[in-house]
Backbone:
């Protein structure tokens, strides 16, 4: 039975919809997990240092396909690790610029996928926050240093865009829940939030420590809060 390996930078409990959609996609092509195809899930939870070991094991076992939806770092690492195993990627930047494909019209090689235009609109998201909060001048950006490619792209875009809008941006790194200190971060910046490169465990930590009225923006709803924590009843 063929084995499909899925590698994602986040945590399984934060993306149940992705798992469901992946299984639907398999079924639409005639594959049913557990019946005529096996799926092995690798959730990195922000620990991108695990990629070499994970990919090395998958390549040694000669899996049929490596899927890297929603992870630029995993997509690039997979492409660098094998020229024979098919790779289906989902990345936040131009896949040609990342070296994943030769061109959009004729990808060539062993990789194909899509670009969901995240990095390209980082500056636009900052502009939207400015429109919503015209009096705010200082914005905090939360990055995951483990995802170096996405963090570098976001930082570059926002550093270039902020002066044109008359804003200041301050970058903070966090890869684990223990490193996310929302109250301290907000106190140091005295400004608003703009989330990117979501660290693992961000959702539960933010839900317990982020003020209910604190504005924030991200490219996926799950990266923020479906509902802000309710205030304690009196």
Residues:
């Amino acid at each position: 039975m063929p084995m499909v390996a899925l590698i994602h930078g986040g945590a399984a409990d934060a993306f149940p919809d992705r798992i469901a959609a992946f299984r639907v996609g398999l079924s639409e092509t005639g594959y049913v997990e557990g019946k005529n195809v096996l799926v092995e899930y690798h959730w990195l939870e922000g620990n991108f240092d695990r990629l070499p070991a994970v990919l090395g094991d998958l390549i040694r076992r000669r899996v049929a396909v490596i899927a890297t939806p929603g992870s630029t770092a995993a997509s690039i690492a997979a492409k660098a690790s094998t020229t024979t195993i098919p790779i289906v990627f989902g990345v936040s930047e131009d896949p040609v610029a990342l070296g994943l494909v030769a061109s959009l019209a004729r990808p060539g090689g062993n990789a194909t996928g899509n670009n969901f235009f995240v990095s390209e609109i980082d500056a636009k998201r900052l502009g939207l926050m400015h429109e919503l909060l015209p009096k705010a001048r200082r914005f905090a950006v939360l990055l995951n240093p483990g995802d170096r490619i996405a963090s570098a792209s976001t930082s570059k875009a926002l550093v270039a865009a902020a002066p044109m809008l008359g804003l200041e941006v301050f970058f903070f790194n966090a890869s684990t829940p223990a490193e996310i200190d929302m109250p301290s971060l907000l106190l140091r910046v005295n400004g608003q939030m703009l989330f990117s490169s979501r660290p693992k465990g961000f959702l539960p930590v933010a839900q317990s420590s982020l003020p209910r009225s604190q504005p924030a923006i991200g490219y996926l709803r799950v990266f923020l809060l479906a509902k802000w924590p309710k205030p304690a009843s009196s």
Observations:
- DSSP finds seven helices and eight strands in the chain.
- Residues 3-115 form a domain with the Rossmann fold fold (CATH 3.40.50.2300).
- Residues 148-165 form the longest helix (18 residues).
